[in-house]
Design brief:
The structure holds 2 protein chains of 2 kinds. By secondary structure, chain A is an alpha/beta fold. Chain A has helices at residues 17-30, 59-68, 77-82, 99-108, and strands at 3-8, 34-39, 72-76, 95-97, 112-116. Chain A is built from 4 helices and 5 strands, in the order βαβαβαβαβ. Chain A has a 5-stranded parallel sheet, sandwiched between helices. Chain A is globular and about 35 Å long. The relative contact order of chain B is 0.26. In chain B, helix 1 links the parallel strand 1 (4-9) and strand 2. By secondary structure, chain B is α/β, with parallel strands linked by helices. Chain B contains 4 helices and 5 strands. Chain B is globular, with a radius of gyration of 13 Å. Chain B has one domain: DsrEFH-like (Hypothetical Protein Ychn, Chain: A, 3-Layer(aba) Sandwich), CATH 3.40.1260. Chain B has helices at 18-31, 64-73, 82-87, 105-109, and strands at 4-9, 37-42, 78-81, 98-100, 114-117. The chains are: A alpha/beta, B alpha/beta. At the A-B interface, helix 4 and strand 5 of A face helix 1 and strand 5 of B.
Chain lengths: 118, 118
């Protein structure tokens, strides 16, 4: 089984990148890929619980739905803590981890790595 | 499986988090012990990261030079595109950074399993 890792650097309301990342993850999961999403920088806001946008896609809801289908999600702890996001603030099942352990392992296990940054 | 990475840094330092995040990403991967090779290319406005005599303490920002020094301590190569330096009239570059012509970049990129962009 092939593995795709997506590194996401845009915040949940910043631009279309999180929505695109999750659509890409969904498509890859449907094709039978293992998919990892690593949230970095402002991207860590994707894992925040309680998002309630009025006019935009609810990234939290989409993320939860894909996690039920097998999407693995981790976020940079340094970036998360800098923004006041701790374990208790994160979607259940998202790991607040590190670049040197979690992201390195995601990358090493991957057949393809895609970075979404602007 | 991915064993080697090269990170392209396209943004200048200090105005945004991007170049700091990209260089920290490259450093974390070589420090992980999981990824065997993690090198960097400074290009477009990213060449401003190579400028010697930076004084980020004047604006209370973390030092890009410190990260570059740490990368070099791990034996990581840092390439900088000559044409982009000339366009921006940057002549004083941090020691140890390898200045290359843009035509050489294609050959360098072929040495790596994955290319990551910040």
């Amino acid at each position: 089984m092939k593995t795709l890792t997506i590194i996401l650097k845009s915040g949940s309301m910043m631009n279309m990148d999180p929505n695109f990342a999750l659509k890409l993850a969904d498509a890859a999961l449907k094709k039978g890929y293992n998919v990892n999403l690593f949230c970095y920088g402002e991207g860590v806001t994707v894992i925040k619980k309680g998002q309630n946008p009025k006019r935009f896609p609810n990234i939290e809801k989409i993320c939860r739905n894909l996690m039920e289908k097998g999407l693995k999600v981790a976020a940079c702890s340094t970036c998360s803590i800098a923004r006041g996001i701790y374990e208790e603030d994160a979607i259940e099942g998202c790991k607040i981890g590190s670049l040197t352990n979690d992201l390195s392992q995601f990358i090493a296990d991957s057949d393809r790595v895609i970075t979404l940054t602007r | 499986m991915v064993k080697s990475l090269i990170t392209l840094i396209l943004k200048p330092p200090y105005g945004s988090e991007d170049s700091f995040a990209g260089l920290m990403f490259a450093l974390s991967q070589i420090a992980s012990g999981i990824i065997e090779k993690s090198d960097v290319v400074l290009m477009h406005d990213g060449v401003y990261n190579a400028k010697a005599n930076q004084k980020p303490e004047a604006i209370g920002m973390p030092s890009i030079i410190d990260i570059i020094n740490n990368l070099q301590a791990f034996g990581c190569k840092i390439y900088c595109i000559e044409e982009d330096l000339k366009e921006r009239e940057i002549e004083d570059v941090v020691d140890g950074i390898e200045i290359i012509k843009s035509e050489k970049l294609k050959d360098i990129l072929e040495e790596y399993d994955e290319i990551i962009t910040f």
